[in-house]
C-alpha cells in the first residue's frame, strides 16, 4: 500500500505547478479559503485564478473554518473535490454536504483521548476524518499515539506539525499524511526542495 499525502496551504501558482507536475504528486492539495488568521489564506479572487489549472492526479481541497453561507456561495462553482471543515457540528456538515454536493473531510482537533471519540458522530457525513492539533495556523503538535486503537474501517488523515523526518514513522499505518508548516522555509513560504523531499519519502512507503 502506497502512503497517501496532502500538501496544505498552497497560495501561489509557481508552487502549485511544481506540486502538480511532480513525478510523485500528492493525492490532495489544500487551499485556505476563509481563515484570515492564517498566513496561507488566499483571497477569493486570487483563489479563482490559482485553481483554474489542470489538476492532473491531485484532488483540490477547500479548507474552511466554520464557513458561513456567503463564502460557501462564493466558492460553490470552483473546482474543489473536497471541503475540509473545522468547527462545525455533524448536522451542519451534513447540510453543507447535501447542498453543495461535495466530498467532506471532517477536521477534528485533538488535545486528549476524549477528543477522539467525536469522530463517530462525523463518520456518516465524511469521506475522510482528519485528526489535527488545536493549533490551527500555529502548527502545533498533538500526540499521534492517541490514535492507536482507532478502527481501520474508515479513511483517516493526520496532521499536527508533522516533519519530513517523521514520515518513516508512518510506515504500514493507514493514514493520509497532511503537511503544511513542515514544508516551509524560515520566511513561511513553501520550499520546493522540502516538498520534493517529502513527496519522495512518501512514495518510498
Spell out the CATH superfamily.
Aldolase class I
Straight-line distance between termini: 8 Å
The geometry reads as: globular
CATH architecture: Alpha-Beta Barrel
Rg value? 16 Å
**Number of DSSP helical runs:** 7
Sketch the topology as an H/E string, one letter per element: EHEHEHEHEHHEEEH
Rounded mean pLDDT score: 92
Q: How much of the polypeptide forms β-strand, as a percent range?
A: 15-25%
Please characterize this protein's 3D structure.
Helices cover 26% and strands 20% of the residues. It is α/β, with parallel strands linked by helices and 205 residues long. It has one domain: Alpha-Beta Barrel (TIM Barrel). Strands 1-2-3-4-5-6-7-8 form an 8-stranded parallel beta barrel. The model has no long low-confidence stretch (mean pLDDT 92).
Please give the structural blueprint.
Blueprint: E1 4-7, H1 13-20, E2 28-32, H2 44-50, E3 59-65, H3 69-75, E4 82-86, H4 90-100, E5 103-109, H5 113-116, H6 119-122, E6 128-132, E7 155-158, E8 175-179, H7 192-204
Parallel strand pairs: 1-2, 1-8, 2-3, 3-4, 4-5, 5-6, 6-7, 7-8
Amino acid at each position: 500500500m502506497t502512503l497517501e499525502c496532502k500538501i496544505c496551504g498552497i497560495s501561489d501558482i509557481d508552487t502549485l505547478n511544481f506540486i502538480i507536475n511532480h513525478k510523485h504528486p500528492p493525492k490532495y492539495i489544500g487551499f485556505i479559503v476563509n481563515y484570515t488568521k492564517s498566513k496561507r489564506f488566499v483571497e477569493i479572487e486570487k483563489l479563482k485564478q490559482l485553481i483554474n489549472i489542470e489538476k492532473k492526479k491531485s484532488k483540490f481541497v477547500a479548507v474552511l473554518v466554520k464557513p458561513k453561507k456567503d463564502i460557501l456561495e462564493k466558492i460553490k462553482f470552483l473546482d474543489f473535490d473536497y471541503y475540509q471543515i473545522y468547527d462545525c457540528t455533524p448536522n451542519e456538515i451534513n447540510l453543507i454536504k447535501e447542498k453543495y454536493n461535495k466530498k467532506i473531510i471532517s477536521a477534528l482537533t485533538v488535545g486528549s483521548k476524549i477528543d477522539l471519540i467525536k469522530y463517530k458522530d462525523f463518520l456518516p457525513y465524511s469521506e475522510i476524518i482528519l485528526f489535527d492539533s488545536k493549533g490551527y495556523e500555529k502548527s502545533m503538535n498533538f500526540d499521534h499515539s492517541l490514535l492507536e486503537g482507532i478502527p481501520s474501517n474508515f479513511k483517516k488523515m493526520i496532521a499536527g506539525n508533522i516533519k519530513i523526518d517523521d514520515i518513516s514513522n508512518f510506515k504500514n499505518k493507514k493514514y493520509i499524511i497532511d503537511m503544511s508548516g513542515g514544508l516551509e522555509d524560515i520566511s513561511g513560504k513553501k520550499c520546493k526542495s522540502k516538498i520534493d523531499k517529502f513527496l519522495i519519502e512518501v512514495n518510498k512507503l
